[in-house]
Design brief:
The protein is globular. The protein has 8 helices and no strands. It is mainly alpha-helical. Helix 3 (about 60-85) runs parallel beside helix 8 (about 175-195) and helix 7 runs antiparallel to helix 8.
């Protein structure tokens, strides 16, 4: 096949390979995870979305639960930003994650954040934590964020700390609103910061 040429007669550069449709893959994966969580919660344990029967009877406190989640999320974003800014390990982690994810638009960051925030919290906090407890659920959450690449190991430790915080929010509020809000905010902001500051241009 003869390469196309520019008007001046020079071959045009080869087209860069298209990135896989990340949101489509994420929608499939997180949809399956959410379905598994809903089935698990329906088969036994507390009412879906609540820590126990008493919490379900009390219901939501939307303003305070949402505020607690957003405040916790902002705290984690600030701490992770300082870790990245002040340490070489944090910078290596940021570059490795950015290389793994590629450059993301704001809409992709928000979409991925909502998908992961809702489905992971439904599974790890809503379905798993009432059965195995805070520490075991957080440890499993961290293991699911393990990657063999050395520069990504701090991500596993970060996930353990985040899992404990999100699990504590779930137990303190009695429902998933606060941990979902915190998780989605953390992922949306940090994904966008990684993309803007560390990802290679398309």
């Amino acid at each position: 096949m003869i390469p196309a040429e520019h008007p001046g007669g020079h071959p045009s550069p080869p087209a860069s390979p298209r990135r896989p449709p990340l949101l489509r893959v994420a929608l499939l994966f997180y949809g399956l995870l959410l379905a598994a969580a809903l089935v698990w919660m329906a088969l036994g344990g507390p009412p879906p979305g609540f820590a126990d029967v008493g919490a379900a009877q009390r219901g939501l406190s939307p303003a305070s639960d949402l505020a607690a989640g957003l405040l916790a999320g902002a705290l984690v974003i600030g701490l992770s930003h300082e870790f990245t800014r002040r340490s070489q390990r944090g910078q290596r982690l940021a570059r490795a994650l950015a290389a793994l994810l590629g450059r993301l638009s704001w809409s992709e960051c928000v979409g991925l954040a909502l998908l992961s925030g809702v489905s992971e919290e439904a599974f790890f906090r809503g379905a798993l934590q009432p059965q195995v407890g805070l520490w075991a659920a957080s440890a499993l959450f961290a293991l699911c964020h393990f990657a063999p690449q050395r520069d990504l190991w701090p991500w596993t430790l970060f996930s353990l700390a985040a899992g404990l915080l999100l699990g504590a929010l779930f137990e303190a509020t009695g429902n998933l609103l606060a941990p979902v809000a915190a998780h989605a905010l953390i992922n949306a902001v940090n994904l966008r910061l990684l993309s803007v500051r560390y990802a290679a241009p398309d």
